[in-house]
């Protein structure tokens, strides 16, 4: 039981870190390594100054939806972890972690919705950027998709996890 508890805690922290990176880093769409776009900025690498020059992304309804859903996903997962820690020390023997699991499942569903919206509407989201055929999805986009099954899995584990003393 102790190994399961350590596993689910580690899984939760890993998915939380992955969600945070996917939300905040600058690589949801890339063009040839010198230009990329994320949920907040469009950045271009300047060879002369050897630094990234970033401008705010053009605000579209689809981009706002992805931004909000990813932030909500991080919030749900963070609340879930804090509730789990609270329940771990206050819940009576034999109790189930329903609320923690529910928060994790909601975090997974909101991350799924955000990644799906970005997948289906990236042309509208990146409308004023360079030609999309010369670019590809970046690692933050992939991290967002990887988070989805991990969040749902940890949510199911939390729902079935019973506190023992």
Give a verbal description of the structure.
The structure is a single chain. The protein has one domain: Butyryl-CoA Dehydrogenase, subunit A, domain 3, CATH 1.20.140.150. Helix 1 runs antiparallel to helix 2, helix 2 packs antiparallel against helix 3 and helix 3 runs antiparallel to helix 5. The protein is elongated and about 60 Å long. With 165 residues, it is α+β, with helices and mostly antiparallel strands. The protein has 5 helices and 5 strands, in the order H-E-E-E-E-H-H-H-E-H. Strand 3 and strand 4 form a beta hairpin.
Poorly predicted runs are: none
* Beta-strand percent range: 5-15%
Give the tally of β-strands.
5
Structural class: alpha+beta
Distance between the termini: 10 Å
- Principal-axis shape equals elongated
Number of domains: 1
What is the CA-atom radius of gyration, in angstroms? 19 Å
Q: Can you count the helices? A: 5
CATH architecture type: Up-down Bundle
Overall pLDDT, averaged?
A: 86
Helix fraction, binned, reads 55-70%
């Amino acid at each position: 039981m102790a190994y399961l508890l350590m596993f689910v805690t580690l899984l939760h922290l890993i998915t939380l870190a992955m969600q945070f990176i996917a939300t905040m880093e600058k690589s949801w769409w890339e063009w040839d390594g010198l230009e990329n776009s994320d949920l907040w900025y469009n950045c271009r690498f300047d060879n002369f100054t050897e630094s990234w020059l970033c401008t705010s992304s053009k605000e579209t309804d689809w981009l706002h939806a992805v931004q909000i859903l990813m932030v909500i996903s991080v919030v749900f997962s963070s609340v879930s972890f804090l509730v789990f820690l609270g329940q771990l020390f206050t819940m009576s023997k034999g109790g189930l972690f329903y609320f923690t699991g529910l928060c994790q499942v909601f975090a997974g569903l909101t991350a799924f919705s955000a990644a799906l919206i970005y997948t289906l509407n990236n042309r509208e989201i990146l409308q004023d950027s360079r030609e999309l055929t010369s670019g590809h999805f970046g690692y933050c986009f992939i991290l967002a998709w990887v988070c989805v099954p991990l969040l749902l899995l940890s949510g199911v584990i939390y729902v079935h996890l019973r506190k023992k003393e």
